[in-house]
Design brief:
Elements (H helix, E strand, L loop, with lengths): L4 E12 L2 E12 L3 E5 L6 H8 L7 E6 L2 E2 L5 H8 L2 E4 L11 H12 L4 H14 L15 H12 L6 E5 L7 H18 L2 E5 L3 H7 L2 E5 L6 E5 L1 H7 L3 H7 L5 H6 L1
Parallel strand pairs: 3-8, 3-9, 6-7, 7-8
Antiparallel strand pairs: 1-2, 1-4, 4-5, 9-10
Helix pairs in contact: 3-4, 3-5, 4-5, 8-9
Length: about 260
């Protein structure tokens, strides 16, 4: 059975002023998969995510979400497409003055007409999914970094989206908490079938959760590898890709970084 492409990026060129960030990027994200967008710092990972979410407009090229071209559609189609996505931003981006429950409830209240008691039930369910049952009334300042990531994940899942974007979901966490977040990602993907796009350079997480990766290159501004990271680690035809996956430093790698 042929896989359905739920996101399509076609010939995307991204610029900030005169600076070319991404040059002619094309790839698909398939329904129900975990795709990791990876590469060294400054290669354009977050820029690509912002364009895939419609937060930035490309210099040229197109992005389709579930068949809708979000680069040229009308406002109603654009917002309908974005409602199919959820985002865990780097640092979680929780509102400090709001409780965990209020943070998760925010998108539900904004984009639905559900009564307050139903929203409360939805919030409890989402927090239970990410392992935060009982923390509804906590402020973000009163929970750990790993719990903030879980709360941000719950908010990303609030509208039961088809696609979730995770920007550095294990960044800044210790190895044990990182492994727990990786397990949560796998659980969400397997139990709900959510398509998950992850932005990261954390190798342990990449090998732990990624079904497929695309690797961006800072110098060429394009994709230099695509596929199963376990295969690319030993069999990529690009020496730099093998060096990255095997954490091998040499003059070529240092020049690229």
């Amino acid at each position: 059975m042929e896989k359905k492409a739920i996101i399509q990026v076609k010939n995307l060129v991204a610029r900030y002023g005169e600076d070319l960030i991404l040059d002619n990027i094309s790839f698909d994200v398939f329904e129900g998969e975990i795709l990791v967008i990876m590469g060294v710092s400054g290669c354009g990972k977050t820029t690509l995510m912002r364009h895939m979410l419609g937060m930035d407009s490309p210099f040229s090229g197109k992005v389709f979400i579930d068949g809708d071209d979000i680069t040229s559609c009308d406002d109603d189609t654009f917002h309908a497409a974005l409602r199919k996505t959820g985002v865990l931003f780097q640092g979680s981006a929780l509102f400090g003055s709001m409780t965990i429950a209020e943070n998760v409830a925010l998108p539900i209240a904004e984009y639905s007409n559900l009564p307050k008691n139903t929203i409360t039930d939805f919030v409890r369910m989402k927090l239970c999914i990410v392992g935060l049952a009982g923390y509804e009334d906590y402020l973000p300042s009163k929970i750990s970094g790993g719990m903030k990531k879980r709360a941000g994940f719950a908010r990303a899942l609030a509208l039961s989206p088809k696609i979730v974007f995770l920007d550095e979901p294990t960044g800044g966490l210790d190895p044990i908490i990182s492994a727990e977040i990786d397990e949560l990602i796998l659980h969400i993907n397997k139990s709900i079938g959510t398509t998950i796009v992850i932005i990261t350079h954390e190798l342990e997480s990449i090998f732990g959760v990624a079904q497929r990766v695309i690797m961006l290159d800072k110098s060429t501004k394009g994709i230099i590898a695509e596929g199963d990271p376990r295969f690319l680690k030993d069999h990529s035809q690009n020496p730099f890709v093998r060096q990255f996956f095997n954490r091998m430093a040499n003059s070529e790698a240092k020049n690229r970084i």
